[in-house]
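How it folds:
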Amino acid sequence: MKLRQKLPLSAAALCVVCCGAIGMLAYQHSTDTLAEAVNARFLDLAQTKADRLGRRLRGMSDATQGVVANRTVVDTIEALKSAVSVESEDSIRAIFQPADRPVEEWFAIDGRNEPNFFADRHAVIHDAVAAAITNSGASDAYIVDPDGLVLYTARKREALLAQIAENDPSALAVASRAALALG
């Protein structure tokens, strides 16, 4: 091939290579920029969620401290432990987990006007605990004795009067053990 033929072909090949290189650089730059923008958005979102969670946890902690600081509540917990040995589990469940009412309504059951020692003691603390749950945004509150017996659940879920096993992996069991370890 003559130089006259090689020169245009070489120039065209050089243009193709340059355009390819520019395209690759542009693609890499846009990919990096997009990745940085996505990471920045995820970090902002994570910080927002962390702030919201922190506020919620502080609210729950404040509500819990308010309930725990109430001497009536502490005395009532001791009375609930005694009441469990006096009343049958079936009679307690009949009051707080009535089969004829939907589970969503159990939260409102406070035990007042029930001929049951456990219900009477439950009524003493339910308003304070229910208010703390409502004000803090918590889903429920549990009182578990050192032996792992669930003495109280504001929403009267299935955990009421359940015995938490030592190696139980449930969230309630883990939280109970952690609370007991704090003293």
Summary: The chain has a mean pLDDT of 85. Residues 3-69 form the longest helix (67 residues). DSSP finds five helices and two strands in the chain.
